[in-house]
Description:
Elements: E1 2-7, H1 10-25, E2 30-35, H2 37-40, E3 56-57, H3 96-106, H4 115-129, E4 148-149, E5 167-168
Parallel strand pairs: 1-2, 1-3
Antiparallel strand pairs: 4-5
Amino acid sequence: xxxxxxxxxxxxxQVTAIxxxxxxxxxxxxxxxxLTPNELYSxxxxxxxxxxxxxxxxxxxxxxxxxxxxxxxxxxxxPSESNSWVGSNITGYGNEEYDSACQTAxxxxxxxxxxxxxxxxTQILLAENLPAIPLYSRLRIAAARPDLCGFALDPxxxxxxxxxxxxxxxxxxx
Length: 174
């Protein structure tokens, strides 16, 4: 029986039920604990996530670009007393090869020849070591009619952020 912690939103409850049923078929039980966001995300060392006091936890990581930042899983991002319990690597994953590849990618521009191979290496290492299992992505979906102008689908931004610049048909400015 593993302790499973997450928040009590409808989507998290649905996913938890699916995981609980699937693991039960394999003989693994879950002791599910639904926490408030303040409880789940409270600082370490006592907080469940940042204090790394969990067996399994379902949590969200926000992406600000098309690809997730490799810094999420660097050794330096492990929450600890030395960094005031701040860090996204709540799994405690540590891998020198990963850290090196991530540092190279982070210190390179996307156009640099070293960026893509380094970033790709971080993704390969994560796939091989699997410190966390991504359950799903929150998709941003938008629809627009053909004569709508001023609309740009940017996965890192709110699609309605510049709504005042939208136009339809003849009102469009080129």
